[in-house]
Inverse folding.
C-alpha cells in the first residue's frame, strides 16, 4: 500500500494535472469510478496504473472484474495519498493513469465520416468536455480540436466528458485550413455555428443538414474569426424563441449536432 503522499511516485501522478507533464509523458489522469469504468470498458490498453483506497474499491465492485479481465492490478493507497494525487477536492476513491490516444486528421477523414465536431479556439474545459460528450451522444464519428483549443486531457475536460473521451476518435493540434480541405475532399460540408449566420431551421428545410457534415464551433467569448467563417460552406445560427440573450457554447453545439443527427437518421429511415 502507498502511504506517503510526498513520495516521488505520488508526485509523478499529481503532476499530470499540469499540461507540461502530460505532454512530456503522453499520459493523463482519470478520476472517479465512471472515468475508470469507461477506460476499462473501451480502451483498457491505455490504462497504465490503477489506484484506489480500500473503501473506494469496495464501493465499486463492477470495476473488479473489468480490471481483472484486462490484467490490470489495483494498487491500494491511503486517503491522504489519493488526495495528493487527485485534481479534485473530494476524490471518489479511484484514480487511474492512462496513455493519451489522439488520432490523426488524415485517419479520421479516411473513414469517410458523416458527422464531425470541429472545435476552434475553445478555451473552457467544461465546454469542451460537454461538446465531446454531446458529439458522442449524437453519434458523431469524431471530434477535431484546432488552434489553441484546450487540451482534451485536462482533468476538467476529462471529467466533463463522463467517459465519452474513450468512445470516439479525437484529433488534437490540427490546423483549421487543413481540416476543412480534408473534410471537403471526404465529401463533407462545413457548417459554422455563429450568431451572424442564417436561420438553422430554414437551412434544415432546404436539406443543408442531410449530408455528411463537419460542424465548426468557435471561442466562447468572440466566436469564430472572419477567416474561419470564410472557410465554411454555410454559417448558421440557432433561433431564439424566448427572451434569452443567447445560448452558451456547449448547449448550442449540442443542439447543432443533434439537429444533424436527427436529419441524417430521418433520411436513412426514408
Amino acid at each position: 500500500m502507498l502511504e506517503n503522499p510526498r513520495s516521488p511516485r505520488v508526485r509523478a501522478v499529481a503532476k499530470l494535472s499540469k499540461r507540461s507533464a502530460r505532454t512530456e509523458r503522453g499520459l493523463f489522469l482519470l478520476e472517479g469510478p465512471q472515468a475508470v469504468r469507461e477506460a476499462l470498458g473501451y480502451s483498457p490498453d491505455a490504462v497504465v496504473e490503477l489506484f484506489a483506497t480500500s473503501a473506494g474499491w469496495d464501493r465499486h465492485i463492477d470495476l473488479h472484474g473489468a480490471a481483472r479481465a484486462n490484467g490490470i492490478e489495483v494498487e491500494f493507497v491511503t486517503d491522504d495519498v489519493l488526495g495528493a494525487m487527485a485534481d479534485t477536492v473530494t476524490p471518489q476513491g479511484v484514480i487511474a493513469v492512462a496513455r493519451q490516444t489522439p488520432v490523426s486528421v488524415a485517419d479520421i477523414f479516411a473513414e469517410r465520416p458523416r458527422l464531425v465536431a470541429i472545435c476552434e479556439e475553445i478555451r473552457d474545459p467544461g465546454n469542451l468536455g460537454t461538446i465531446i460528450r454531446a458529439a458522442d451522444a449524437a453519434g458523431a464519428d469524431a471530434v477535431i480540436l484546432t488552434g489553441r483549443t484546450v487540451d482534451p486531457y485536462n482533468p476538467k475536460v476529462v471529467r466533463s466528458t463522463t467517459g465519452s473521451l474513450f468512445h470516439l476518435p479525437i484529433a488534437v493540434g490540427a490546423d483549421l485550413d487543413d481540416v476543412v480541405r480534408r473534410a471537403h475532399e471526404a465529401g463533407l460540408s462545413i457548417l459554422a455555428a455563429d450568431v451572424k449566420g442564417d436561420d438553422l431551421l430554414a437551412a434544415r428545410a432546404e436539406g443543408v443538414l442531410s449530408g455528411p457534415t463537419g460542424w465548426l464551433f468557435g471561442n466562447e467569448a468572440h466566436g469564430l474569426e472572419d477567416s474561419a467563417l470564410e472557410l465554411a460552406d454555410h454559417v448558421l445560427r440557432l433561433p431564439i424563441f424566448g427572451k434569452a440573450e443567447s445560448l452558451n457554447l456547449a448547449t448550442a453545439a449540442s443542439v447543432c449536432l443533434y439537429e444533424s443527427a436527427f436529419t441524417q437518421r430521418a433520411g436513412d429511415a426514408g
